[in-house]
């Protein structure tokens, strides 16, 4: 493998492990030195061991294709991503700051709406959004926390700085894969952990439990917490069951719960009804309660919104939190930080053009070949166009979509996403990646040390989503390093 590493070329991008001079970065030095010593056969054996571990552990994800649900083994790359602890400390502080501002914004929107009255955020952007739920008006959850679990997508540009690409505040997924990535790496490269001070991630279920328990309306040593799943056919069902098991919570579907005449939520058990204190819901708002939202939903729990409004149960993430999970609203988060916290943003956001503003729309339409165009509320890498990789036909289609519904589209510069060495075939090559840390908000705020690194396995591609062919890496935060 030495030859593969020696010919490794970072190109014009910031590489997470290797400097422009071809040397390992300080935080990654021990890992790179060990990996360089492994022969091709040894690397292949380690990759085969990882694939076997993934099958044995039952780690899978579901993609939707042509009306079918297809289970696939989790795509994993054995070379870890390494970030210095001091670098991460600054990022972690910035993520906590951003989440505090987002929670303050959501609480304000469903109550006094000061930020709209003061003209910081245009009212029509928020109140006309499908993510604004008038059913939540007048509610202020405990600690003012609405987005109890936030998954914020970060990227590094060629300047080596982290930027926030988007916030995921409704039902963010991926944390179970972050934990499993670490377990797989420990199995197949155990010697890498011998001389490193790597911050652990395996306490996430305990941290999540503490966050959820702090929301309980009843003072109990061990409140009743349930994980509400749409069922086994959901693409994130593996994660739902993984986290329920890790917390010692019950995994339930809507039919397992009911609300009584006193607006109290109960779980059906073999020993009779048991009162539920906290629901960690993995169901979208529209399907959560057929009384309050979609009357045809069979996934949710009739009356759960009544129980929540009465303060008889906590729901995480709170209904309505998605009002801040909008790529148009994203553009105003730096202003929210200044408005609510009286601070400057610690992490920069990616420059964003709002197609609803005529001047910015004109710029986007004139530069479609240079920009990434995204719909305001899609996720999973669907519905976007990467300008430099697009065809004339695609650009023409997106120009029409933007002109027909400008509120639904934003555009951002095509970033030079950072790369990391990735084992492709039987060689080590650079691949682009992003990072999704998870921020927990309840009585306290806690940020995962690292997060879920997603990798664009196709050479030159910037699309990292697993549903679009992306893979994943273990992410290390190494103490005492930049």
Give a description of the structure:
The protein has 13 helices and 23 strands. Among the domains are: 99-152 and 197-341, 3-Layer(aba) Sandwich (Rossmann fold), CATH 3.40.50; 351-413, Dna Ligase, domain 1 (2-Layer Sandwich), CATH 3.30.1490.270. The protein is globular. It has helices at residues 2-6, 29-37, 40-57, 85-109, 114-117, 123-127, 175-188, 204-213, 237-247, 304-309, 333-341, 358-366, 392-404; strands spanning 60-65, 68-73, 76-84, 149-156, 162-168, 225-228, 250-252, 257-259, 265-267, 274-275, 278-281, 314-316, 348-349, 353-354, 371-375, 385-386, 409-413, 419-424, 427-436, 438-441, 445-447, 452-455, 471-478. Helix 3 crosses helix 7 (175-188), helix 4 (85-109) crosses helix 11 and helix 8 (204-213) packs across helix 9 (237-247). The model has no long low-confidence stretch (mean pLDDT 92). Strands 3-23-22-19-18 form a 5-stranded mixed sheet. A 5-stranded mixed sheet has the order 13-5-4-20-21. It has a 4-stranded parallel sheet with strand order 7-6-11-12, covered by helices on one side. With 482 residues, it is α+β, with helices and mostly antiparallel strands.
């Amino acid at each position: 493998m030495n030859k593969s590493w020696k010919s490794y070329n970072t190109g014009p991008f910031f590489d997470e492990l290797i400097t422009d001079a071809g040397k390992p970065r300080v935080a990654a030095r021990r890992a790179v030195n060990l990996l360089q010593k492994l022969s091709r056969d040894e690397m292949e054996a380690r990759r085969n061991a990882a694939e076997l571990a993934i099958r044995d552990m039952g780690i899978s994800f579901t993609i939707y294709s042509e009306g079918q649900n297809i289970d696939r083994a989790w795509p994993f790359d054995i070379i870890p991503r390494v970030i210095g602890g001091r670098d991460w400390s600054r990022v972690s502080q910035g993520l906590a700051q951003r989440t505090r501002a987002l929670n303050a914004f959501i609480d304000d929107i469903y109550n006094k709406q000061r930020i709209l009255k003061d003209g910081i955020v245009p009212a029509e952007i928020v109140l006309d959004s499908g993510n604004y739920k008038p059913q939540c008006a007048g509610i202020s959850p405990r600690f003012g926390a609405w987005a109890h679990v936030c998954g914020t997508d970060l990227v590094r540009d060629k300047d080596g700085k982290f930027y926030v690409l988007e916030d995921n505040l409704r039902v963010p997924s991926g944390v179970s894969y972050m934990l499993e990535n670490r377990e797989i790496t420990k199995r197949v490269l155990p010697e890498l952990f011998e001389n490193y001070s790597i911050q652990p991630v395996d306490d996430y279920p305990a941290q999540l439990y503490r966050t959820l328990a702090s929301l309980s309306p009843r003072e109990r040593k061990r409140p009743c917490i349930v994980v509400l799943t749409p069922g086994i056919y959901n693409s994130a069902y593996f994660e739902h069951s993984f986290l329920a098991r890790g917390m010692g919570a019950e995994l339930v579907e809507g039919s397992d719960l009911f609300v009584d005449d006193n607006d109290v939520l109960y779980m059906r058990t073999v020993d009779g009804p048991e009162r539920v204190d906290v629901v960690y819901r993995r169901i979208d708002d529209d399907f959560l309660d057929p009384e309050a939202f979609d009357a045809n939903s069979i996934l949710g729990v009739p009356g759960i919104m009544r129980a929540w409004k009465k303060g008889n149960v906590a729901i995480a993430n709170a209904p309505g939190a998605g009002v801040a999970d909008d790529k148009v609203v994203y553009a105003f988060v730096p202003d929210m930080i200044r408005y609510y916290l009286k601070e400057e943003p610690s992490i920069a956001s990616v420059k964003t053009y709002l197609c609803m503003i005529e001047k910015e729309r004109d710029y986007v339409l004139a530069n479609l070949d240079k920009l990434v165009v995204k719909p305001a509320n899609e996720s999973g890498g669907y519905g976007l166009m990467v300008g430099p990789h697009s065809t004339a036909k695609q650009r023409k289609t997106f120009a029409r979509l933007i002109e027909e519904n400008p509120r639904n589209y934003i555009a951002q510069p095509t970033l030079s996403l950072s790369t990391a060495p990735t084992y492709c075939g039987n060689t080590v090559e650079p691949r682009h990646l992003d990072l999704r840390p998870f921020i927990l908000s309840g009585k306290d705020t806690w940020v995962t040390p690292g997060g879920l690194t997603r990798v664009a396995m196709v050479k030159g591609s910037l699309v990292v989503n697993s549903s679009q062919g992306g893979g994943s890496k273990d992410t290390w935060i190494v103490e005492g390093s930049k």
